[in-house]
Protein backbone atom coordinates (compact mmCIF):
# COMPACT_ATOMS: atom_id res chain seq x y z
CA UNK A 1 0.00 0.00 0.00
CA UNK A 2 2.69 2.44 1.09
CA UNK A 3 4.76 1.52 -1.92
CA UNK A 4 1.81 2.11 -4.24
CA UNK A 5 1.30 5.55 -2.77
CA UNK A 6 4.97 6.31 -3.21
CA UNK A 7 4.80 5.15 -6.77
CA UNK A 8 1.74 7.30 -7.42
CA UNK A 9 3.45 10.38 -6.08
CA UNK A 10 6.53 9.71 -8.24
CA UNK A 11 4.22 9.35 -11.26
CA UNK A 12 2.44 12.60 -10.41
CA UNK A 13 5.79 14.27 -10.18
CA UNK A 14 6.89 13.00 -13.63
CA UNK A 15 3.63 14.14 -15.20
CA UNK A 16 3.99 17.63 -13.73
CA UNK A 17 7.59 17.77 -14.83
CA UNK A 18 6.68 16.60 -18.35
CA UNK A 19 4.09 19.35 -18.76
CA UNK A 20 6.66 21.81 -17.49
CA UNK A 21 9.24 20.62 -20.06
CA UNK A 22 6.80 21.05 -22.96
CA UNK A 23 5.83 24.50 -21.73
CA UNK A 24 9.41 25.62 -21.33
CA UNK A 25 10.41 24.24 -24.75
CA UNK A 26 7.42 25.94 -26.39
CA UNK A 27 8.58 28.69 -28.76
CA UNK A 28 5.08 29.79 -29.75
CA UNK A 29 3.34 27.28 -32.02
CA UNK A 30 6.16 24.78 -32.06
CA UNK A 31 8.23 22.95 -29.47
CA UNK A 32 12.01 22.60 -29.64
CA UNK A 33 13.38 19.11 -28.79
CA UNK A 34 15.72 20.60 -26.17
CA UNK A 35 16.88 24.09 -25.35
CA UNK A 36 20.30 24.94 -26.84
CA UNK A 37 21.12 21.50 -28.27
CA UNK A 38 18.20 21.52 -30.76
CA UNK A 39 16.80 25.08 -31.04
CA UNK A 40 14.45 24.55 -34.03
CA UNK A 41 11.36 22.51 -34.91
CA UNK A 42 12.31 18.92 -35.74
CA UNK A 43 9.83 16.92 -37.75
CA UNK A 44 9.26 13.60 -35.98
CA UNK A 45 10.00 15.11 -32.57
CA UNK A 46 7.23 17.61 -33.16
CA UNK A 47 4.68 15.04 -34.26
CA UNK A 48 5.35 12.96 -31.15
CA UNK A 49 5.29 16.02 -28.94
CA UNK A 50 1.83 16.90 -30.32
CA UNK A 51 0.50 13.71 -28.70
CA UNK A 52 2.00 14.88 -25.39
CA UNK A 53 0.36 18.31 -25.65
CA UNK A 54 -2.94 16.62 -26.51
CA UNK A 55 -3.12 15.21 -22.99
CA UNK A 56 -3.46 18.65 -21.39
CA UNK A 57 -3.94 21.27 -24.16
CA UNK A 58 -5.70 20.09 -27.30
CA UNK A 59 -5.59 23.36 -29.19
CA UNK A 60 -1.87 23.65 -28.61
CA UNK A 61 -1.46 20.08 -29.86
CA UNK A 62 -3.18 20.84 -33.18
CA UNK A 63 -1.11 23.99 -33.47
CA UNK A 64 2.09 21.91 -33.28
CA UNK A 65 1.09 19.96 -36.41
CA UNK A 66 -0.23 23.06 -38.17
CA UNK A 67 3.12 24.82 -37.68
CA UNK A 68 4.97 21.73 -38.91
CA UNK A 69 2.95 21.72 -42.14
CA UNK A 70 3.18 25.50 -42.62
CA UNK A 71 6.67 24.94 -44.05
CA UNK A 72 5.72 22.03 -46.31
CA UNK A 73 7.48 22.21 -49.69
CA UNK A 74 5.44 22.66 -52.87
CA UNK A 75 6.33 19.11 -53.91
CA UNK A 76 4.88 17.75 -50.63
CA UNK A 77 8.05 17.20 -48.62
CA UNK A 78 8.00 18.12 -44.95
CA UNK A 79 11.60 18.85 -43.98
CA UNK A 80 13.51 17.33 -41.07
CA UNK A 81 14.15 20.74 -39.52
CA UNK A 82 12.14 23.97 -39.73
CA UNK A 83 14.22 27.00 -38.79
CA UNK A 84 11.59 29.44 -37.58
CA UNK A 85 13.85 31.70 -35.54
CA UNK A 86 17.56 32.34 -35.79
CA UNK A 87 19.87 30.47 -33.42
CA UNK A 88 23.58 29.83 -33.48
CA UNK A 89 23.56 26.97 -30.98
CA UNK A 90 23.06 24.23 -33.64
CA UNK A 91 25.14 23.14 -36.61
CA UNK A 92 24.29 22.87 -39.51
CA UNK A 93 21.81 25.74 -39.42
CA UNK A 94 19.89 27.47 -42.24
CA UNK A 95 22.95 29.26 -43.64
CA UNK A 96 24.57 25.90 -44.40
CA UNK A 97 21.47 24.16 -45.74
CA UNK A 98 20.54 27.15 -47.95
CA UNK A 99 17.40 25.50 -49.32
CA UNK A 100 15.54 27.25 -52.13
CA UNK A 101 11.84 26.87 -51.56
CA UNK A 102 11.30 28.65 -48.26
CA UNK A 103 14.56 30.57 -48.46
CA UNK A 104 16.78 29.19 -45.74
CA UNK A 105 13.83 28.18 -43.63
CA UNK A 106 14.10 24.40 -43.66
CA UNK A 107 16.61 21.61 -44.15
CA UNK A 108 16.56 19.89 -47.54
CA UNK A 109 15.70 16.32 -46.47
CA UNK A 110 12.84 14.69 -44.54
CA UNK A 111 12.35 12.53 -41.40
CA UNK A 112 10.10 9.61 -40.32
CA UNK A 113 6.47 10.51 -41.18
CA UNK A 114 4.84 10.33 -37.74
CA UNK A 115 2.22 13.07 -38.31
CA UNK A 116 -0.67 10.79 -39.39
CA UNK A 117 -0.23 8.72 -36.21
CA UNK A 118 -0.56 11.76 -33.97
CA UNK A 119 -3.45 13.19 -35.95
CA UNK A 120 -5.36 9.93 -35.46
CA UNK A 121 -4.38 9.74 -31.78
CA UNK A 122 -5.63 13.29 -31.24
CA UNK A 123 -8.84 12.74 -33.14
CA UNK A 124 -9.60 9.55 -31.22
CA UNK A 125 -8.94 11.17 -27.84
CA UNK A 126 -10.57 14.53 -28.44
CA UNK A 127 -13.04 16.14 -26.06
CA UNK A 128 -14.16 18.44 -28.91
CA UNK A 129 -15.10 16.20 -31.86
CA UNK A 130 -16.57 18.91 -34.08
CA UNK A 131 -13.52 21.16 -33.88
CA UNK A 132 -11.22 18.17 -34.17
CA UNK A 133 -12.93 17.03 -37.37
CA UNK A 134 -12.29 20.44 -38.89
CA UNK A 135 -8.63 20.20 -37.92
CA UNK A 136 -8.43 16.81 -39.58
CA UNK A 137 -10.15 18.13 -42.73
CA UNK A 138 -7.44 20.79 -43.00
CA UNK A 139 -4.50 18.52 -42.22
CA UNK A 140 -5.54 15.48 -44.25
CA UNK A 141 -4.57 16.74 -47.74
CA UNK A 142 -1.23 17.94 -46.44
CA UNK A 143 -0.34 14.62 -44.86
CA UNK A 144 -1.52 12.79 -47.98
CA UNK A 145 0.71 15.02 -50.13
CA UNK A 146 3.67 14.21 -47.89
CA UNK A 147 3.11 10.45 -48.17
CA UNK A 148 2.79 10.84 -51.96
CA UNK A 149 6.12 12.67 -51.92
CA UNK A 150 7.80 9.69 -50.22
CA UNK A 151 6.66 7.38 -52.99
CA UNK A 152 7.39 9.74 -55.88
CA UNK A 153 10.75 11.04 -54.69
CA UNK A 154 12.04 8.03 -52.80
CA UNK A 155 10.52 5.03 -54.56
CA UNK A 156 10.39 6.01 -58.24
CA UNK A 157 10.62 2.34 -59.27
CA UNK A 158 7.55 1.44 -57.25
CA UNK A 159 9.09 -1.26 -55.05
CA UNK A 160 6.71 -0.55 -52.15
CA UNK A 161 9.47 0.59 -49.77
CA UNK A 162 11.11 4.02 -49.81
CA UNK A 163 14.76 5.08 -49.65
CA UNK A 164 16.47 7.46 -47.30
CA UNK A 165 19.26 9.47 -48.90
CA UNK A 166 20.86 10.70 -45.68
CA UNK A 167 21.22 9.02 -42.26
CA UNK A 168 19.53 12.10 -40.73
CA UNK A 169 16.36 11.12 -42.61
CA UNK A 170 16.08 7.90 -40.61
CA UNK A 171 16.20 9.79 -37.31
CA UNK A 172 18.76 7.15 -36.21
CA UNK A 173 21.73 9.19 -37.32
CA UNK A 174 24.82 7.10 -36.54
CA UNK A 175 23.23 3.66 -36.46
CA UNK A 176 25.63 0.80 -37.29
CA UNK A 177 23.07 -0.10 -39.97
CA UNK A 178 24.66 2.64 -42.12
CA UNK A 179 28.31 1.69 -41.53
CA UNK A 180 28.70 -0.24 -44.77
CA UNK A 181 26.81 2.38 -46.79
CA UNK A 182 28.73 5.32 -45.31
CA UNK A 183 32.07 4.34 -46.85
CA UNK A 184 31.82 6.67 -49.88
CA UNK A 185 34.71 9.18 -50.09
CA UNK A 186 34.61 12.33 -48.00
CA UNK A 187 34.42 15.47 -50.16
CA UNK A 188 37.99 16.89 -50.19
CA UNK A 189 36.60 20.42 -50.76
CA UNK A 190 34.41 20.31 -47.62
CA UNK A 191 34.55 23.81 -46.06
CA UNK A 192 35.88 23.82 -42.49
CA UNK A 193 33.11 23.67 -39.89
CA UNK A 194 32.59 23.85 -36.17
CA UNK A 195 30.22 21.43 -34.47
CA UNK A 196 27.88 22.90 -31.87
CA UNK A 197 26.62 19.60 -30.44
CA UNK A 198 29.93 19.06 -28.65
CA UNK A 199 29.47 22.29 -26.69
CA UNK A 200 26.28 20.81 -25.16
CA UNK A 201 27.05 17.12 -24.59
CA UNK A 202 30.07 14.81 -24.23
CA UNK A 203 31.85 13.70 -27.39
CA UNK A 204 31.54 10.02 -26.38
CA UNK A 205 27.74 10.36 -26.64
CA UNK A 206 27.75 11.76 -30.18
CA UNK A 207 28.67 10.71 -33.73
CA UNK A 208 32.40 10.90 -34.59
CA UNK A 209 34.12 13.52 -36.79
CA UNK A 210 34.45 11.04 -39.63
CA UNK A 211 30.69 10.46 -39.55
CA UNK A 212 29.99 14.21 -39.54
CA UNK A 213 32.32 14.69 -42.54
CA UNK A 214 30.18 12.23 -44.45
CA UNK A 215 26.90 13.84 -43.30
CA UNK A 216 28.22 17.11 -44.74
CA UNK A 217 29.59 15.50 -47.89
CA UNK A 218 26.01 14.43 -48.64
CA UNK A 219 24.53 17.79 -47.68
CA UNK A 220 26.84 19.79 -49.98
CA UNK A 221 26.36 17.28 -52.78
CA UNK A 222 22.57 17.66 -52.55
CA UNK A 223 22.81 21.45 -52.37
CA UNK A 224 24.96 21.55 -55.51
CA UNK A 225 22.52 19.26 -57.28
CA UNK A 226 20.07 21.95 -58.27
CA UNK A 227 19.31 22.76 -54.63
CA UNK A 228 17.94 19.47 -53.37
CA UNK A 229 15.81 18.72 -56.44
CA UNK A 230 14.37 15.38 -55.28
CA UNK A 231 14.05 14.00 -58.81
CA UNK A 232 17.82 14.21 -59.14
CA UNK A 233 18.80 13.25 -55.59
CA UNK A 234 17.53 9.70 -55.79
CA UNK A 235 19.86 9.00 -58.73
CA UNK A 236 22.95 10.89 -57.64
CA UNK A 237 23.12 10.18 -53.91
CA UNK A 238 26.05 7.94 -52.91
CA UNK A 239 23.92 6.87 -49.93
CA UNK A 240 20.61 5.17 -50.71
CA UNK A 241 19.21 2.80 -48.14
CA UNK A 242 15.86 1.17 -47.36
CA UNK A 243 15.49 2.10 -43.70
CA UNK A 244 13.30 0.06 -41.35
CA UNK A 245 12.44 3.05 -39.18
CA UNK A 246 11.07 5.29 -41.96
CA UNK A 247 9.37 2.39 -43.72
CA UNK A 248 7.72 0.92 -40.62
CA UNK A 249 6.46 4.34 -39.58
CA UNK A 250 5.28 5.10 -43.11
CA UNK A 251 3.38 1.80 -43.24
CA UNK A 252 1.73 2.44 -39.88
CA UNK A 253 1.07 6.06 -40.87
CA UNK A 254 -0.66 4.83 -44.02
CA UNK A 255 -2.95 2.66 -41.92
CA UNK A 256 -3.79 5.65 -39.73
CA UNK A 257 -4.24 7.92 -42.75
CA UNK A 258 -6.59 5.35 -44.25
CA UNK A 259 -8.57 5.40 -41.01
CA UNK A 260 -8.76 9.21 -41.17
CA UNK A 261 -9.81 9.08 -44.83
CA UNK A 262 -12.68 6.77 -43.85
CA UNK A 263 -13.80 9.21 -41.13
CA UNK A 264 -13.84 11.96 -43.73
CA UNK A 265 -15.50 9.82 -46.43
CA UNK A 266 -12.63 10.28 -48.89
CA UNK A 267 -12.99 7.10 -50.92
CA UNK A 268 -10.46 7.96 -53.64
CA UNK A 269 -7.80 8.50 -51.02
CA UNK A 270 -8.72 5.22 -49.31
CA UNK A 271 -8.06 3.35 -52.56
CA UNK A 272 -4.77 5.14 -53.14
CA UNK A 273 -3.56 4.39 -49.60
CA UNK A 274 -4.60 0.74 -49.87
CA UNK A 275 -2.41 0.52 -52.97
CA UNK A 276 0.56 1.72 -50.90
CA UNK A 277 -0.22 -0.79 -48.16
CA UNK A 278 -0.39 -3.70 -50.61
CA UNK A 279 2.89 -2.71 -52.27
CA UNK A 280 4.46 -2.08 -48.89
CA UNK A 281 3.60 -5.57 -47.74
CA UNK A 282 5.44 -6.96 -50.79
CA UNK A 283 8.37 -4.58 -50.32
CA UNK A 284 8.92 -5.63 -46.71
CA UNK A 285 9.38 -9.28 -47.74
CA UNK A 286 12.81 -8.43 -49.16
CA UNK A 287 13.93 -7.01 -45.83
CA UNK A 288 13.43 -10.23 -43.88
CA UNK A 289 16.63 -12.11 -43.02
CA UNK A 290 15.40 -15.65 -42.47
CA UNK A 291 18.67 -16.90 -41.03
CA UNK A 292 18.90 -14.14 -38.43
CA UNK A 293 15.16 -14.10 -37.72
CA UNK A 294 15.16 -10.32 -38.04
CA UNK A 295 14.27 -7.54 -40.45
CA UNK A 296 17.29 -5.70 -41.88
CA UNK A 297 17.85 -2.40 -43.65
CA UNK A 298 19.04 -2.71 -47.25
CA UNK A 299 21.64 -0.82 -49.25
CA UNK A 300 19.83 -0.04 -52.50
CA UNK A 301 23.05 0.60 -54.41
CA UNK A 302 24.72 -2.75 -53.68
CA UNK A 303 21.46 -4.62 -53.02
CA UNK A 304 22.94 -6.08 -49.80
CA UNK A 305 21.04 -6.34 -46.52
CA UNK A 306 22.91 -4.36 -43.85
CA UNK A 307 24.43 -6.76 -41.33
CA UNK A 308 23.64 -4.78 -38.15
CA UNK A 309 20.73 -5.94 -35.99
CA UNK A 310 19.19 -2.69 -34.71
CA UNK A 311 16.13 -1.82 -32.64
CA UNK A 312 14.29 -0.79 -35.82
CA UNK A 313 14.31 -4.53 -36.69
CA UNK A 314 11.32 -4.79 -34.33
CA UNK A 315 9.40 -1.83 -35.78
CA UNK A 316 7.61 -3.93 -38.44
CA UNK A 317 5.59 -5.16 -35.43
CA UNK A 318 4.48 -1.58 -34.88
CA UNK A 319 3.70 -1.29 -38.58
CA UNK A 320 1.67 -4.49 -38.39
CA UNK A 321 3.45 -5.77 -41.50
CA UNK A 322 5.22 -8.76 -39.89
CA UNK A 323 3.65 -12.23 -40.17
CA UNK A 324 2.89 -14.27 -37.01
CA UNK A 325 5.93 -16.47 -37.71
CA UNK A 326 8.19 -13.47 -38.15
CA UNK A 327 6.83 -11.96 -34.94
CA UNK A 328 7.72 -15.14 -33.02
CA UNK A 329 11.30 -15.04 -34.33
CA UNK A 330 11.59 -11.34 -33.49
CA UNK A 331 10.44 -12.01 -29.94
CA UNK A 332 12.96 -14.80 -29.59
CA UNK A 333 15.74 -12.45 -30.68
CA UNK A 334 14.61 -9.59 -28.49
CA UNK A 335 14.48 -11.88 -25.45
CA UNK A 336 18.08 -12.94 -26.11
CA UNK A 337 19.20 -9.30 -26.41
CA UNK A 338 17.64 -8.56 -23.05
CA UNK A 339 19.73 -11.21 -21.32
CA UNK A 340 22.76 -9.00 -22.05
CA UNK A 341 21.52 -5.65 -20.72
CA UNK A 342 19.50 -4.54 -17.73
CA UNK A 343 17.03 -2.26 -19.54
CA UNK A 344 15.06 -2.58 -22.79
CA UNK A 345 15.36 -1.83 -25.73
CA UNK A 346 18.98 -1.12 -26.75
CA UNK A 347 19.32 0.45 -30.20
CA UNK A 348 21.86 -2.19 -31.26
CA UNK A 349 22.12 -5.90 -30.47
CA UNK A 350 24.27 -5.85 -27.31
CA UNK A 351 26.12 -8.93 -28.58
CA UNK A 352 27.45 -6.92 -31.54
CA UNK A 353 31.10 -5.86 -30.96
CA UNK A 354 30.13 -2.35 -32.17
CA UNK A 355 27.72 -1.95 -29.24
CA UNK A 356 28.48 1.25 -27.26
CA UNK A 357 26.14 1.84 -24.35
CA UNK A 358 26.40 5.64 -24.52
CA UNK A 359 26.98 6.56 -28.15
CA UNK A 360 23.69 7.79 -29.45
CA UNK A 361 22.12 5.28 -31.90
CA UNK A 362 24.83 2.65 -31.35
CA UNK A 363 23.45 1.18 -28.13
CA UNK A 364 21.35 3.56 -25.99
CA UNK A 365 17.61 3.32 -25.35
CA UNK A 366 15.20 5.85 -26.88
CA UNK A 367 11.78 6.08 -25.28
CA UNK A 368 9.92 6.73 -28.52
CA UNK A 369 11.29 3.50 -29.99
CA UNK A 370 10.33 1.67 -26.79
CA UNK A 371 6.78 2.95 -27.19
CA UNK A 372 6.57 1.75 -30.78
CA UNK A 373 8.05 -1.68 -30.05
CA UNK A 374 5.89 -2.19 -26.98
CA UNK A 375 2.77 -1.15 -28.89
CA UNK A 376 3.68 -3.58 -31.69
CA UNK A 377 4.32 -6.47 -29.31
CA UNK A 378 0.95 -5.93 -27.68
CA UNK A 379 -0.72 -5.98 -31.08
CA UNK A 380 0.77 -9.44 -31.76
CA UNK A 381 -0.25 -10.70 -28.30
CA UNK A 382 3.14 -10.56 -26.55
CA UNK A 383 1.82 -8.70 -23.54
CA UNK A 384 4.47 -9.82 -21.11
CA UNK A 385 7.33 -8.43 -23.18
CA UNK A 386 5.29 -5.29 -23.96
CA UNK A 387 4.81 -4.76 -20.20
CA UNK A 388 8.46 -5.31 -19.53
CA UNK A 389 9.40 -2.54 -21.97
CA UNK A 390 6.81 -0.22 -20.49
CA UNK A 391 7.96 -0.89 -16.93
CA UNK A 392 11.60 -0.38 -17.88
CA UNK A 393 10.65 2.93 -19.49
CA UNK A 394 8.89 4.07 -16.33
CA UNK A 395 11.85 3.03 -14.22
CA UNK A 396 14.29 4.84 -16.49
CA UNK A 397 12.43 8.15 -16.39
CA UNK A 398 11.86 7.86 -12.63
CA UNK A 399 15.50 7.19 -12.05
CA UNK A 400 17.20 9.42 -14.61
CA UNK A 401 14.62 12.08 -15.53
CA UNK A 402 13.44 13.28 -18.94
CA UNK A 403 16.72 12.74 -20.76
CA UNK A 404 17.28 12.41 -24.51
CA UNK A 405 18.21 8.72 -24.22
CA UNK A 406 19.36 6.13 -21.66
CA UNK A 407 22.19 3.73 -20.99
CA UNK A 408 20.80 0.16 -21.27
CA UNK A 409 23.43 -1.23 -18.91
CA UNK A 410 23.33 1.27 -16.02
CA UNK A 411 20.01 3.02 -16.65
CA UNK A 412 21.74 6.42 -16.51
CA UNK A 413 20.34 9.27 -18.58
CA UNK A 414 22.42 10.65 -21.47
CA UNK A 415 22.48 13.34 -24.16
CA UNK A 416 20.22 16.37 -23.68
CA UNK A 417 18.15 17.13 -20.58
CA UNK A 418 14.51 18.32 -20.30
CA UNK A 419 13.84 16.53 -23.57
CA UNK A 420 10.51 17.14 -25.27
CA UNK A 421 9.73 13.77 -26.84
CA UNK A 422 10.68 11.93 -23.66
CA UNK A 423 8.27 14.22 -21.78
CA UNK A 424 5.58 13.61 -24.41
CA UNK A 425 5.95 9.85 -24.03
CA UNK A 426 5.52 10.15 -20.26
CA UNK A 427 2.27 12.01 -20.85
CA UNK A 428 0.78 10.11 -23.78
CA UNK A 429 2.06 6.58 -23.08
CA UNK A 430 3.42 5.97 -19.61
CA UNK A 431 0.94 7.73 -17.38
C1 LIG B 1 19.89 15.73 -36.72
C2 LIG B 1 16.16 16.06 -32.52
C3 LIG B 1 16.91 15.11 -33.44
C4 LIG B 1 16.14 13.79 -33.64
C5 LIG B 1 16.99 12.72 -34.30
C6 LIG B 1 18.31 12.61 -33.54
C7 LIG B 1 19.01 13.96 -33.53
C8 LIG B 1 19.89 15.62 -35.19
C9 LIG B 1 21.29 15.82 -34.65
O1 LIG B 1 18.20 14.90 -32.88
O2 LIG B 1 19.33 14.32 -34.85
O3 LIG B 1 18.57 15.71 -37.20
O4 LIG B 1 21.87 16.87 -34.95
O5 LIG B 1 21.83 14.97 -33.94
O6 LIG B 1 19.10 11.62 -34.09
O7 LIG B 1 16.32 11.50 -34.29
O8 LIG B 1 15.01 14.02 -34.40
O9 LIG B 1 15.83 15.41 -31.32
From TrEMBL:
Transmembrane feature ranges: none
Domain named Mannosylglycerate hydrolase MGH1-like glycoside hydrolase is located at: 38-422
Kindly provide the name given to this protein in its UniProt entry. Answer: Mannosylglycerate hydrolase MGH1-like glycoside hydrolase domain-containing protein
Give the species this sequence originates from: Sphagnum troendelagicum
